[in-house]
Amino acid sequence: MACLSRLDEFLRSENTVVDYLGRQDPRSRLEADWLIRGNIDGELCYLFLIAKSSKEVIKDRYSGHYVCRSIFPYRGIAYGQYGRLMTTLLKQRNSTIGERTEILYRHPSCPGDYLES
Q1: How far, in Å, CA of 33 to CA of 60, rounded?
Q2: Is-above-0.85 flag for pTM?
Q3: How far apart are CA 16 and CA 32, in angstroms?
Q4: How far is the C-alpha of 15 from the C-alpha of 36, rounded, in Å?
Q5: What is the C-alpha to C-alpha distance for residues 96 and 24, in angstroms, rounded to an integer?
Q6: Other C-beta atoms within 10 Å of 61: how many?
Q7: Is residue 49 classed as helix, strand or coil in its secondary structure?
Q8: Torsions phi, psi of 10, nearest 5?
Q9: Residue 92 Cα distances to 12, 28, 32, 63, 66, angstroms
């Protein structure tokens, strides 16, 4: 619960995104599309995301719509070592109320008009 209660802090911190291939990790039974590794008060935590889908829409890993599958602190298993590390180009926080957007990080190679394209 400690990781979940501090989810906003976790997402705002520096973290690593991994294209999670749980089926290739022999120690994992977790099914997820993406893994985000980060720290809360110096403790490594894992956030597993799965692509959101509905009856009308086929699951699309690259849609940008995800649901938290699991979040927990490191407990002896280093998840994500079989996945591909991804480069974060743009990290933004979108308000679910209204249309407010806050850019948390923009990679130096990411153009300023990236949001309009």
Answers
A1: 10
A2: no
A3: 15
A4: 7
A5: 35
A6: 12
A7: strand
A8: -60, -50
A9: 9, 29, 21, 15, 14
